[in-house]
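Incident log, structure service

09:12 report received: a user says their structure output differs between two submissions of the same chain.
09:20 pulled the input from the user's history:
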Amino acid sequence: MKELLVLGAGTGGSLMANKMARMLPADWRVTVVDQDDKHIYQPGLLFVPFGDLRPDELVRPRMNLISSDVRRIIQPIDRIDPEAKTVALGDGTKLTWDILVVATGAQIRPDQTTGMTGQFWRKDLHEFYSLEGSTALAQRLERFEGGRLVVNLADMPIKCPVAPLEFTFLADAWLKKQGLRDKTELVFVTPLDGAFTKPTAARALGGMLENRNISAVTNFALSDIDADRRVARSYDGREVDFDLMVTVPLHGGATPIRASGLGDDLGFLPTHKHTLQSRDYPHIFALGDATDLPISKAGAVAHFQGDVLPDNILRYIDGRPLWPGYDGHANCFIETGHNKAMLIDFNYDTEPLPGRFPLPGIGPFSLLAESEINHLGKLAFKWAYWNVLVKGDELPLDHRMLMYGKRSG
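09:34 re-ran on a clean worker, output below:
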């Protein structure tokens, strides 16, 4: 019996395990490993601080989402030996494999910024990228009475690059609803030279910040937090003071990737950008947040990659050339407050453009423009995530970025 081993049972790992269990020849077995049995719907973490979703609504048992045809193991992953084709688990077990799929995701690393996890941590300095963090922030906002609220992005890359902006827009709307906006100075602090990495989207989003009277501090690469003075400091010496700071901490690859020496300087797996094969080991493939690819770390990316990777694994098994089918396609809804959202759709080579999605002239979603339909689309994705995406079933979206319905220039 040959073994396809999937490390990680988040979005990418779950959909790949389920797909490959249906597609592999009869002499292959699929095994999936994760450290716990708690699958978190990460896009929902954004809504917890504002009371729009409860933490318990975002969690389901991981292994209930995986096909019964897959061998499922709950153990921490200790170390990967790509030469011996083994994976050591926390209990001392060693698993062997013929093909490895790395879907270990990304981790927030607040400990990597001096002073971040000091005396203010989870008090007046918060993050919303974990269940514990978003829950603690919700409790802090219940006591917020105004002051200087700073939303900070420490550095790139991060999971869901638009989430810091989304939080800022939702905070603006929430403060108005609570009667606190006039008592609050809202500041968006980013290491980028604008609101987003892509110029057209950056202009649109930057204009929205200005229209909402949200100050923007750009090119601010966070160096450390001065706990005594309640100040965030950049590497060039600039300082931003705060009463309440919501940060998106530094991100890195998962611990076993770093411990095994398989990652780049940040711990992300070097991966061919079109085939999703490891650049160092032909029998290793990767998808989702675990890769070093120059595209957003987002659930939609794992979905589109999951439409390409199974075919390449079958091609590898058959000794056929791999298919360079992944074009960097990514899309995401951007919550802008007041029950509205934007949608952006882009890939490696084409930045977000205005238009309609997915059907030209019909939509129903508008690109680079706010609408209530876009907001409803983001909310509806939660159902599609649990019931279609992670089960490896097909969503009616092309894995390629298409220009139909888009306006350039």
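09:41 both user submissions now match this output. Likely a transient worker issue. Closing.
09:42 reviewer note: The CA atoms of residues 22 and 69 lie 8 Å apart. The chain has eight helices and 24 strands.
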